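Slide 14.
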Amino acid sequence: MSTQDHQGIAFHVAHEQQNSLRLLELPPILLELLTSQHPSKLSLKSTVSTEETPGHAVLCSDNQTFQLRQVHSSNSVFLLQPSCLASNTKEASSSHGMTTVAKCEATLEAIPQSIQCTHQLKAALPVLSSLEMDSIPPWTQPKGKLAIFDDFPFSFREFEQAWNDICALEVEGQAFRPSSEVLWKVWRSIVSGCILKGFSLDQDIDVSSLARTIEEDDVPPFVMRSVVERLRVNNGVALHEHVKMDPAESVRWAGTVFLEARTEDGNAMNVAAFLHDWKDGLPESWRRHATLETLKGNFTQPSGDTIMFAGSGLSAGKDPHSTTAAKFTGPQARRWHEKFKSSRR
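Slide 15: predicted structure.
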């Protein structure tokens, strides 16, 4: 039997130093990110609180968003730090021990965000619903791309991808997105413009030359460029003047946009008529790819011979954020390119 005198570890509760802390439980992907050679910066954001749903905090890395959830535990967790504790007797000197500086009664869990950033951004931006205009009326409280990102509960790369996916724009400090009807009109103008210029969408196209051609259809160059940016090959790199369009993605996107434009009022469309008009808006060499299988996941069929965009009717009627500018005539009218020279960011 051991006769060694074991004094134990001195323990002290610093009541005057108790801090309000929360432990953050990191998922493996975040732990790996923070311990890597080049760790990412993390930022805290929150969703907007409404009467129906309370806001919640999110943790963002450069390219991913995690929802923070507070979990209470019946077990007390103390945060300790080494300390030098004075003895209660005059004979004994001070000794080394541990002091508790915080009691954590809850843990924060970081859960990957399941909400689609694209859907959120699409719902948040004002809608440009017509191209039949010579200018946009002044905004009472303009809100640009960066201001929207600051208040948007997603990471920067997720936001950038969503911005690109919906062909969003910033004009005179105001961010907005073109409606599906506008996007379909722009796409038809791109196809027609390529035919007039002798360009093949299977090869590189001259963006500046095409922009000048379709501007005659009252299509602003910056809106056209947003569509080209969305559909070109390697859209993750800087946009050059000569680009190649992605055929498979262009066919799928054009069909989705056209179907949304025709059924967003909640009324289904005849399948045969839809397929005919969709193919008619594509280059001839791409038309064989215009099948319902290409749009899988983006449509529903109320009946065997009708079709609707998945989500049609959710915002039927006039969009409260819709922006259709008054059309000016006479000497005060100005063309799009004179008012907005470099607005896409």
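Speaker note: The first strand starts at residue 10 and ends at 13.
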